[in-house]
Specification:
Number of strands: 18
Mean pLDDT: 94
Largest sheet: 4 strands, antiparallel
Low-confidence stretches: none
Structural class: mainly beta
Radius of gyration: 17 Å
Strand order of the largest sheet: 4-5-6-7
Length: 203
């Protein structure tokens, strides 16, 4: 919520503060690092952990080798609700997952699983044009979500190896109030991009 701050800790704690930093809620008994916390369009809490899977409204989702629609990896580094209330899950080792409601539970559709570094996702952000940016260990992937869902091969890839980024290790993505995308890397500073025109030739 806009009037709350949610904090997950490496020791399995979850804390909720109001904007005056008064503690409203705390829980300290989760079994792994809490890397991501957000709410979906229905107000349900989604929480990503390192090593224990994805938590959605009291239910944990973990990989199941016998179920191709299970969550892609037990390490969840980011969870993102886009402008159409779709829930995207960035796993560190299993690529990008789109959560799909199936009765009272969720199944997951998988993207970006072609190679080891591509499957390591740390950050997801939507720009003001409705395109989604995904930061990985192989650079940045940019896509129109409607097109990617229709055809998983429709996306653009920007990387250090192609001379477009300062590093392929992307730590964080942020869209500011003027539409600029800030791209933070590991050890090599950051880059700024103003997405407009052709997404295949961003600078």
């Amino acid at each position: 919520n806009d009037d709350e701050m949610w904090i997950g800790t490496r020791k399995g704690g979850l804390y909720v503060y109001d904007m005056q930093f008064n503690l409203k809620y705390s829980r300290k008994d989760y079994h792994s690092n809490i890397y991501a916390v957000t709410r979906d369009g229905e107000g349900k809490v989604w929480m990503g952990s390192r090593g224990d899977g994805l938590y959605i409204d009291g239910v944990w989702y973990r990989p199941d080798a016998s179920d191709p629609e299970s969550i892609g990896n037990k390490n969840i580094f980011c969870v993102y609700k886009d402008s159409k209330d779709r829930m995207w899950v960035g796993t560190f080792g299993g690529g990008l997952d789109l959560a799909i409601k199936d009765g009272n539970r969720y199944k997951f559709r998988h993207f970006f699983n072609d190679n080891y570094n591509q499957r390591q996702i740390r950050t997801i952000c939507e720009d003001r044009n409705g395109w989604i940016w995904v930061g990985t260990s192989r650079g940045v992937y940019v896509f129109n979500p409607d097109e990617l869902i229709y055809d998983p091969s429709i996306y653009y890839h920007y990387s250090y190896l192609k001379g477009e980024l300062r590093s392929d290790e992307i730590k964080y993505l942020f869209s500011d109030s003027e539409g600029n995308m800030w791209i933070a890397t590991s050890g090599f500073g950051f880059s700024i991009c103003m997405p407009e025109g052709d997404y295949g030739s961003l600078k």
